[in-house]
Amino acid sequence: ATPEDMRANAEYIRMADEIVDVPGGSNNNNYKNVRLIIEIAERWRVDAVWAGWGHASEDPLLPDGLDAAGIVFIGPSGPPMRALGDKIGSTIIAQS
Is 16 helix (H, G, I), strand (E, B) or coil? Predict the structure, then answer.
């Protein structure tokens, strides 16, 4: 959780068994920082990562990097994310 998350005192933070400190500030410092997410997951020896909505959860480098580290990404793998991020490719997929 970022310092901003902690100040917000959100319910999902109050419900957590453990909270991991991450840098505050812009999303590039935390929730969009794929390298940081993977490093934290490895440091905490997690089995899986769910990245929520938006930010790094839409970056195919996250599932790719987690897979390379032996950590499960709860969400689509990199190739479908890449295909759906391509407007023409996603239209073809949707129509098939």
Answer: coil
Tell how far CA 38 is from the center of its chain: 9
Nearest to 67 by CA among 39, 43, 40, 48: 48
pLDDT in tens, 49-76: 988 777 888 899 999 999 999 999 999 9
Question: Tell me, what's the pLDDT at 65?
Answer: 97
- Comparing 4-8, 33-37, 68-72, which segment has the lowest mean pLDDT? 4-8
Task: Give the count of alpha carbons within 13 A of 2, CB side only.
Answer: 16
Cα of first residue to Cα of last residue in the chain, in angstroms, is 40
Would you call 79 exposed, middle or buried from its count of C-beta atoms within 10 A (0-12, 13-18, 19+)? exposed
Residue 53's CB is within 10 A of a number of other CB atoms, namely 7
Q: How far is Cα 15 from Cα 8, in angstroms, rounded to an integer?
A: 14
